[in-house]
Amino acid sequence: MASKGSAALEAMIEEATVDTDDYDDERAGLFNMIGEHLAVPFTTTVLGVEVTVRKIELAADSIVAVCARGHHRQKIDLLDLPLPAPAPDGAAFIDAYRHWAGR
Q1: Residue 47, number of CB atoms within 10 A of its CB
Q2: Source organism's superkingdom (predicted)?
Q3: Which end of the chain, N or C, is less surrounded by CB atoms within 10 Å?
């Protein structure tokens, strides 16, 4: 999936943060949009190991992907999570979150 342009990302951010008051509210709004649109589970590679992204969670100061391999679980900051090619449906909202966070 090709990355969306800045104008499209800005529109997605505006939609997610329209009724927010501060940074934490904006992050929560983006988390809600990701949760609504991102198709999970999906597989990706982290440090050369294939993992399954089971769900997305709102952490104290970030949004994280809960990754699994066998019985092991690891939370990876969504800003640091490599996406597979092709990206899962709804990954454009991860792009919008990264754009919002300045990444």
Answers
A1: 7
A2: Bacteria
A3: C
Reported pTM? 0.89
CA distance 62 to 76: 10
Q: Which residue has the tokens 């009724």?
A: 19
The residue written with tokens 């988390």 in the block is 31
Q: How do the pLDDT tens digits run along the chain, 103 residues long?
A: 345 688 999 999 999 999 889 999 999 999 999 999 999 999 999 999 999 999 999 999 999 999 999 999 999 999 999 999 999 999 999 999 999 999 6
State the DSSP string of the chain. -PPPPHHHHHHHHHHHHTT--SHHHHHHHHHHHHHHH---SEEEEETTEEEEEEEEEE-SSSEEEEEEETTEEEEEETTTPPPPSSPPTTTHHHHHHHHHTT-
Neighbours of 59 (CB within 10 A): 12
